[in-house]
Amino acid sequence: MKYYLIAGERSGDLHGANLMKQLKKLDQQAEFRFFGGEAMQQQGGTLVKHYQEVAFMGIAEVVTNLRTIWQALRFCKQDIEQYQPQALILIDYAGFNLRIAQYIKKKRLPIKIYFYISPKVWAWNTKRVRYIKENIDKMFCILPFEVDFYQKFGYFQAFYVGNPLIDAIADFVPNPYFRTHNQLSEKPIVALLPGSRKQEVAKILPVMVSVASYFPDYQFIVAGVNNLPKQLYEPYQSNYIKIIYEQTYDLLAHAHAALVTSGTATLETALWDVPQVVCYITSYVTYYFAKAVLKIPYISLVNLVAQAKIAEELIQKKCNKTNIIQHLEQILPINSPRRLTMLQNYAELKNRMGEAGASYRTAQAIWADLTTVYPY
Fold first, then answer.
1. Residue 303 confidence (pLDDT) above 90
2. Most buried residue among 79, 184, 295, 363 by CB atoms closer than 10 A?
3. Whether the Cβ atoms of residue 116 and residue 90 lie closer than 8 Å to each other
């Protein structure tokens, strides 16, 4: 079978790679062409556009890059038509991917369309459910409450497959020499996860690092990513701050606590049992738009999945040095009530999310569906 996958950000690249790995086990003749990144590239196939070229977050950022996005959309449509895959697998990245799905259906191309990792339509834009019902053959959800949400709107092709983060963490073997390799001391580690987008890091990292000097008994380590310029991180290297690249899971495996940019990383941090404070700053345009339209009580994935306030969320003006210090002080002492409660809530969260195997279950479902249409 020929598969065309579209991932528009770093986490989608990771999940896409794991899905490709499982598809190859089921389909010996699998051929891949994709929008993605290095993780997907390692699984083979052809990378036609790196997610970094189209990863824009927030209203202001999208508007200022509309020309680039429209050019990528036009190229993607043409590329899919020329490649003629049997399956189109869309991985999150809703604004872009739903337009691609709509185009393929309108052209009546003989391509099965699967969505892996549901768009966050439950957060604010429930009108998009109509487009999903019309254009997506099957939706594979990674959050437990999403199936019930879709069924309320009459869409019954949504299935909970588990969460691929559980797979990624279960497969990861921490480096026992992590501290030595990175020349770290034996002080407890506070991990700083400022995100993987340029605009996130630029806004949030300066605030995160500003608290380090207030906690001399701890070492603050920034999780850097190689797809962003090192100039974003290097100004913050100091006696209190160390930056390491592409070792986020090792960092979390050894961390005592963390400051985390809202998003997938908040759930990863919880799955690693690291108490956290959620930090988020975006443009004022994006913030006020989101505040007006969001229909959810929390912005962090860890709280949304738990459907309760597990971690403190410091957003926009509340994300400042004073507040971060206050909430970090509550989770650092090993036996503090706030820390112990958070760890207990993490255990309940893991039970809610179920077992590993999301990538395999999704690949199995796609393969079973495809072979009814294209029997070998």
1. yes
2. 363
3. yes
